[in-house]
């Protein structure tokens, strides 16, 4: 077959495709991806189903059969967490991840608290976490949940997400009231601010507002502790402070800002019209003392090396033995353990 015949045969075949072959348009059509649903992995779905309540809000409904043969049908608002369902199965039905608990391990079953009482107890728990600066993850501790269940089996311990929501709700409630109080009581306010780098290597700024009311009572309010974008130039810091003052509606009341003596903080205050800069006295005193001790730097280094020497385990043990051998020099009674103190460290 000649070359021209081969080309003609190819063109004829291409222009009359077989019925079973896909068209060119079909080949370039993007394939539709099937929507993937997230697989539910929590064990509580063996006993709960998802539903909507009368307010058309998502809830989970307990399907456990009670002793009288009826379903439990207790509902909990569902925000993606399974913590409430987990606590309910444990406290109401003695069901855990491994199944029904034996009678000697079963918990006392009492009807759950009303929603109002449950909210009050959650607020007390949140107050404890905030006042003692505890991590939110404490509520996820199994031992803590067992402890709470022993104290009150009807209290459903919330998870960390719920604690955060309670704190945000409280902040949004109280902030307008504080703003109203400042505007009502203060004729002018002074700010104290500092900038530092956290363990996550991000910059944070803290601002405290101070003023005297009509009775000359000093009032101090922490306005914020929040992230500051990098770089920490005077312009970025000034923009952040400006936004915070506008948010709290005290820009017109602010007269002075107290900061440390770093150049970016001093410059940022200059960029804020109508606000004066005051250097932090403590920071200034620290600089003065540091420069005053500069002449004694060699002596200080030797003392530090001496302290580091005695802080090693070997030398600390040797010093303890010597103190026991010569109690009169160590200034302690024979029946007492010697205390070694260097650089505010105590070794018993």
From TrEMBL:
SUPFAM superfamilies: Hermes dimerisation domain, Ribonuclease H-like. InterPro entries: RNaseH-like_sf, ZnF_BED_domain_contain. It is found in: Nucleus. Residues 1-13 have a biased composition (Polar residues). The keyword Plastid does not apply. Residues 1-35 are annotated as: Disordered. GO terms for molecular function: zinc ion binding. One of its GO terms (cellular component) is nucleus. Keywords: Metal-binding, Nucleus, Zinc, Zinc-finger. PANTHER family: ZINC FINGER BED DOMAIN-CONTAINING PROTEIN 39, ZINC FINGER BED DOMAIN-CONTAINING PROTEIN 4. This is Zinc finger bed domain-containing protein 1-like. It comes from Rhizophagus irregularis (strain DAOM 197198w).
């Amino acid at each position: 077959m000649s070359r021209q015949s081969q080309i003609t045969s190819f063109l004829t075949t291409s222009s009359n495709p077989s019925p079973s072959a896909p068209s060119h348009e079909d080949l370039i059509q993007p394939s539709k991806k099937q929507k993937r649903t997230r697989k539910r992995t929590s064990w509580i779905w063996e006993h709960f189903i998802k539903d909507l309540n009368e307010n058309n809000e998502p809830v989970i409904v307990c399907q456990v059969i009670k002793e009288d043969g009826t379903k439990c049908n207790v509902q909990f608002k569902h925000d993606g967490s399974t913590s409430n369902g987990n606590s309910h199965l444990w406290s109401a039905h003695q069901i855990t991840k491994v199944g029904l608990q034996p009678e000697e391990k079963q918990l006392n079953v009492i009807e759950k608290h009303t929603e109002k009482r449950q909210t009050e107890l959650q607020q007390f728990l949140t107050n404890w976490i905030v006042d003692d600066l505890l991590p939110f993850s404490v509520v996820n501790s199994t031992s803590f949940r067992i402890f709470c269940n022993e104290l009150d089996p009807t209290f459903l311990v919330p998870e960390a997400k719920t604690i955060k929501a309670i704190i945000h709700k409280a902040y949004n409630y109280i902030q307008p009231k504080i703003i109203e109080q400042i505007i009502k009581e203060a004729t002018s306010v002074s700010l104290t601010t500092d900038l530092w780098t956290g363990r996550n290597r991000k910059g944070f700024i803290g601002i405290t507002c101070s003023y005297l009311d009509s009775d000359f009572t000093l009032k101090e309010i922490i306005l914020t502790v929040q992230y500051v974008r990098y770089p920490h130039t005077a312009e970025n810091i000034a923009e952040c402070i400006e936004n915070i003052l506008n948010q709290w509606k005290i820009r017109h009341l602010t007269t002075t800002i107290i900061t440390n003596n770093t150049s970016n903080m001093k410059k940022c205050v200059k960029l804020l019209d109508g606000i004066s800069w005051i250097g932090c006295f403590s920071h200034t005193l620290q600089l003065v003392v540091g420069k005053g001790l500069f002449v004694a730097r060699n002596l200080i280094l030797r003392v530090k090396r001496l302290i580091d020497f005695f802080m090693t385990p070997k030398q600390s043990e040797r010093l303890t033995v010597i103190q026991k051998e010569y109690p009169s020099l160590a200034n302690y009674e024979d029946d007492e353990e010697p205390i070694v103190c260097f650089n505010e460290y105590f070794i018993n």
